[in-house]
Amino acid sequence: MTSTFTPVPPGSGAGAPPAPPAVVATEVAKVYGSGDAAVHALRGVSVSFAKGAFTAIMGPSGSGKSTLMHCLAGLDTVTSGRVTLGEVEITGLGDRRLTLLRRERVGFVFQAFNLVPTLTAEQNILLPLELAGKKPDRDWFDQVVEVVGLRDRLSHRPAELSGGQQQRVACARALVSRPEVIFADEPTGNLDSRSGAEVLGFLRSSVREMGRTIVMVTHDPVAASYADRVVFLRDGRIVSELARPTPDAVLDQLKALGG
Amino acid sequence: MLKVSLAGVRAHRLRLMLTGLAIMLGVGFIAGTFVLTDTMQAGIDKKFAGSASKVDVAVLPKKGKVDVLPEEGPGGDRVPADLLTKIRALPGVTAVHGLVRGEAPLIGKDGKVYGDSPTRGLSVTDGPLQRYDIVAGKAPVAPDEAVLDERTAKRNGFKVGAVIRVLDAKGAEHRFTLTGLADFGVDSEVGFYGGVGFTPATAVRMTGERDPVEIDVLGGDQAALRDAVAAVAGARYDVLTSRALGDRLADAAGADTKIIRTGLLIFGVVSMLVSALVIYNTFAILIAQRMREMALLRCVGATRRQVFGGVLLESAVVGLAGSLAGLALGVVLAAGLLALVGGMNAEIPTDRLTLTPTAVAVGLTVGIVVTVLSALLPARAATRIAPVAALRSELEPGGGRFRLGWPRRILTVLFGVLGVGLALLGSLSMDKGETAMFVVAAGGALLFLAVIALMPALVRPLGGAAGALPARLTGVPGRLAVANARRTPRRTATTTIALTIGVGLMSLFAVVAASGQATVVANLEEQFPVDFQLHTQFSSAQTDPELPPALAAGLRARSELTGVVEMRRQEARVGGDEVEVGTATPAAFGRLLKPPVRSGSLADLKTGTVAVNETIAKHQGLAVGDTLRIGTGRGQVPLKVVAVFGGETSLSSYVVPESDFTRYFGAKGPWTIYVNVRPGTDPERALRAVEQVAQPYPTVKATSATAVKEQFTSAFDTMLMIFGGLLGLAVIIALFGIANTLSLSVVERTRESALLRALGITRGQLRLMLSVEAVIMAIIGALTGVVLGVAFGWAATESMADSSVFALPYGQIVGLMALAGLAGLLAAVLPARRAARTSVVESLSHG
């Protein structure tokens, strides 16, 4: 699986020609409800996420950033438009195909409730591989565990881990199956700033050093500044984007959006 | 607070509905029992009132004086015949009928007497005092006419106009023309044995009973007539007006209804106990899930008392709703059962369902009280929630490990040791019998309490064991299911205990029934290693019925048969006691009859000796070598004791050699004959040979050992089926418990399920996961029940009698486990569907 990915040099997201995209959304619209009660969460979003890049999606509350991520990840269906993940168009796939696709090609890091409470850290990390019936690559597993610094926590259950440790377990789980894309939904939303920085640093290094592709939804300018590129959403539309963001630049942009 | 409670019920109506169903089933069973028995009783009352209304005054033996010594007059349960003449002579009396009832064996179409006991002969008049309903034809008027009980006629295939043969008290055969069919009312004797009705004079002649069981009188004013008759009858007899007679008859028959009611109510109590567990669990889980809501109430100013009262009120509403539904269910159940019974057996008159205020009151009270009591502990837990809990972020549900606290440990050890101790005491060291059985039952109850206390600690290991196979078969979903079943040990424990009760009692009955059957078969084989037994009907007559003397010779002459053994017996006096002296064909000792000999030897049973049963020997202080004196037709005869034997045997207490027996008591027919099939002969042919020899004697009946065994087997099977059916309800309620716990867990784990779905668990796998969890819970409960049931089935069997043989009904036990597993699958259907249907995105964002 590693062979399909070429490591991308750090910082290539900005001026250099973009690598072939990992995820592409074309004119994606999402409407909840119908008639007068209809809520247009996405109104024709077209965006592509480069392989080996770390992209942040930002926007004020209700801008549709979480909906966009759910549609990109195959968790939710789109009302119109197309989403392509790798070479597969996922719009129109049935629940079972989507489930199998998520299991094999997508990794997730959520804000909270990331781990199955009855499983140990190690079992949580290996869960997607086991669901897919694949044998874990032991060297790769060791490497990931080493990087996230969980070696001595593997046999602990989530209740026995701190919030930061839980998020690092979630990151390890997202990495160990070598998915085409990792979707992170406010991964540091519940963490103190030190733990948050650790997790973000770890996400960034997994892009830079391991060549992963990450799409992260966040409303924290500092978190967004770890990304190679920030996409700004407002009222269900992409309104602007920023390459090589700094916290200040992101904040300015958000202010400009009125969020 | 009332509004909040009602809103709570509305908001959780789906979850509370399952609880309501549990209450409904329990109350339905109890209410159904009442409706059923009340309706039956009402029918019986009506029938007897109708029958008694034909009489102005009736004379009966005094109530409760049935066992009067025979010296005091005619049998204590009869009225002297001369009283009949005296009453007839009273002024104003227009009609008198002495009701005769005695044995009058009817000969069936097969030429043999009908039934194991003689049919009853009754007097039937054609006058105004005719108490029985003639349902076809007419009452007998001539000495050669008779009516038959409707059912007896149907079973024998006799129709009006047929000629029937009936034996009189001396065994002589008489022929009668069947003039009609009668319904002899709810006469329990006729119900059991069948009945033939004759004219009064013929009834006396046939039954040999001169004295009637009751005298019915007609003659004007009831009160005056009663006083006049009472003056003649004297204090030894009850003189009743028609109304009092109806009450008394209905009371006597009503005893059966009360036994049915008590028996059914015991199972009702078991069901309510299981319901209580289900309710307790549901409320405990609901409270845990509504912690935030409760804390919010406390934040805005609700006192602990208000929170407590609110939860109780909620439970009372659920209890009331469930109980009302239960009452309706009870009426439907009773109606269905009555329709079913009515179709098979027209004996019970049931025109209209009776729902008494008592039934309503008991049903509602039990339902509400059980519900509220079950909610007490959860309600108390609700008051312990601190207001600040509303502000805290939600905790991960479950995940905690259960530690067995000291109170539980002490209770477990105390009850466990006591329970096991009592069970061993009752089954191994105590004298067999009722007391020992009660001790075992008490031990069972205590051990069950110990298991309840220990159960949460057992959930982990048992869950692991029960889930090992499913986890291996289904991979990740299976392993998650095992972990989920074990994550909330208290909850799982309560859920499974509910199932343990039903399954435990079922397997207990299965073991006891199988052991009883094995005991009977073993005893039959040990004590009667015979193929056929010839005997007469069981009669209550004073003289022991005898088989014709020529029968044995006829059997010995047949080449198909071998080992013909005649058993004889006679009442005699030893010292001041009336005892039974018996004998058997000499060749049988040591071969066909081999009771365990405690001392001496049966081979020494020669002229002038006797063998004595060990119970008698112990009681009389007799040992081998002693001499006892026995009263015979030739005066007192001294006999030397040569053997003491034990065991359960058909031998009499005192056994003398056959030649001596004839000398002491004269020539006498045997009371039974044992016959074996000659080796190499077709059993069918042998049976025909036996039947041919017995053909000329209508009172002689032949029974084959296989038929007896089959009879016992089917009797045990029927018993087991009835108990199983009644306990099935408890199991069904327990399944509601599993479904309830599971659906509450599904709600609780919405976030977790969504996460698993995001990570790649398919809908099918999610359903599988919940199904496996349910099966694990069911297996834990069933396994515990089976272990307890089998253990106490063994203890109960051992405590019953020395000769008890323990048998394990493997098939039924395995079947019970499989059924429990299947039921678990069924219980998971709805919760699993719900879990699989939930939208991933919604759960992720709102969880």
TrEMBL record, chain A:
All residue ranges annotated as the ABC transporter domain in the record: 23-254
GO molecular-function terms, A-Z: ATP binding; ATP hydrolysis activity; transmembrane transporter activity
Protein's UniProt name: Putative ABC transport system ATP-binding protein
Segments crossing the lipid bilayer: none
Keywords per UniProt: ATP-binding, Nucleotide-binding, Transport
InterPro entries hit by this protein: AAA+_ATPase, ABC_transporter-like_ATP-bd, ABC_transpr_LolD-like, MacB-like_ATP-bd, P-loop_NTPase
SMART domains in UniProt: AAA
Gene Ontology CC annotation, any one: plasma membrane
TrEMBL record, chain B:
Residue ranges of coiled coil: none
Cellular compartment(s): Cell membrane
GO CC terms in record: plasma membrane
Membrane topology summary: Multi-pass membrane protein
TM spans (from-to): 16-36, 264-287, 308-341, 353-377, 410-430, 436-459, 496-516, 719-747, 768-795, 807-830
Domain MacB-like periplasmic core: start-end pairs: 17-232, 492-692
UniProt keyword terms in alphabetical order: Cell membrane, Membrane, Transmembrane, Transmembrane helix
Domain (ABC3 transporter permease C-terminal) ranges: 266-387, 726-839
Entry keyword annotation includes Cell membrane: yes
Keyword field contains DNA damage: no
GO MF terms held by the record: transmembrane transporter activity
Domain of life: Bacteria
Location (main, coarse): membrane
Family of this protein: Belongs to the ABC-4 integral membrane protein family.
Protein name: Putative ABC transport system permease protein
